[in-house]
Amino acid sequence: MLSVVVDQPQHMAVQERPMPEPQEGEVRIRVRYAGICGSDLHIFHGYNPFVSYPRVIGHEFVGRIMSVGPGVDAARIGQTVVVDPVISCGQCHACLIGRRNVCSRLQVIGVHRDGGFSQYACVPQGNAYVVPKGLADASASVIEPFAVAANVTGRTGVFPSDVALIYGAGPVGLNLMQVLKRVYGIRAFITDHFDERLALALQVGAAEDEIINTRREPLEEALEKRGVQGGPTLIYDAVCHPSILEEAVRLAAPAGRIGILGFSNTPSAIPQQELTKKELTLYASRLNCAMFPQVIEWIEKGLVDPGRIISHKVDFRDVQSAFDLAERDPRNSCKVLLDFGAP
Q1: Confidence of residue 265 (pLDDT cuts 50, 70, 90)
Q2: Which of 52, 61, 184, 279 fits as disulfide partner to 116, beta carbons 3.0 to 4.6 Å?
Q3: Are 122 and 29 in contact (CB under 8 A)?
Q4: CB–CB of 101/151 below 8 Å?
Q5: How many angstroms from the chain centroid is the CA of residue 258?
Q6: Cα 304 to the center of its chain, rounded Å
Q7: Is 175 exposed, middle or buried (0-12, 13-18, 19+ CB in 10 A)?
Q8: What is the distance between the terminal CA atoms of the chain, rounded to a whole angstrom?
Q9: What pTM was estimated for this model as a whole?
Q10: Cα distance between residue 103 and residue 91, in whole Å
């Protein structure tokens, strides 16, 4: 089989690899589509502290179960499934209190172990969720990024009285917008520097006055002009630059909540007084904690459409051009999928 392998930082190639055999409790999947995430770019560039090389990357993927290991019902063969990349031990403190996504022995498919940028991949059967009937395979590959949005909104909570602000109209920010508007029905603003990305926000549920191009409008001024008095009550940082957290703390309303999704190791300068005087709460959110069933339920109810952010499908053999597109052309690309062909 062919796999996309990052041998070392800045070096990636499509290589012939042995067919993996499903171990006890595992299924072998013939991958159909796999999405490129910012964390895949980080692994390629050598910025991810958790990965070891060489690594078959990719943690957003969908495909068909072709064989099963011992202990797995053979009836699963033929199912089209999407994969939750989070593998936890079930025994540490985090797991025992229901926070398996930060397990002390966490294994992430595509990071700690080989992932879905491959014609075939083996995963634990409990991580393979049956795709909702009628959902296109390409759309199903975006369930994992939706689970990220579901996780951070679950962490912060969303109240009917909330007014939200999302920094960044990339894949995660757009998924957050869709969840906030279509699942929770609240007012939500989204910022970006590119009109093309903000146009996508309109397609996923934003109103015309809820998009803010911060190249043209200072954010605080733009919010005041749109009637946001006292600041947003709910803020999500889907850009993950240290300066954004500093601004978010300053802008947030009293009793506001801020969801943080980034992995930057650069400190943010936040005065303690800003947090305490408004009694703000910061919620860090990593990956997802068993959110696939929730997202699948939203899809089945017609509340969200994950396929709306897909901009390109690229043959996996052209992975370098797909990475260049995802990283260097933010005006014209959003979620870029690698196409591994029909089984």
Answers
A1: confident
A2: 61
A3: yes
A4: yes
A5: 17
A6: 15
A7: buried
A8: 12
A9: 0.96
A10: 9
* Closest alpha carbon to 26 in 114, 148, 137: 114
Is the model's pLDDT at 193 over the cut of 90?
Answer: yes
Q: Locate 155 and state its tokens.
A: 């962490």
The residue-averaged pLDDT of 136-163 equals 98
Answer for the pair 332, 311: CB distance below 8 angstroms, yes or no. Answer: yes
The pair of three-digit structure tokens given for residue 289, joined into one six-digit string: 């904690």
Residue type for position 45 = H
Separation between Cα atoms, residue 208 and residue 165, nearest integer Å: 14
- 63-98 pLDDT, tens digit per residue, is 999 999 999 999 999 999 999 999 999 999 999 999
* Residue 93, number of CB atoms within 10 A of its CB: 10
Side-chain-side CA neighbours of residue 43 (13 Å): 29
Q: Which of 151, 150, 154, 156 has its CA nearest to residue 280?
A: 156
Q: Pairing state of beta strands 310-315 and 335-339?
A: parallel
CA distance 167 to 62: 28
pLDDT attached to residue 242: 87
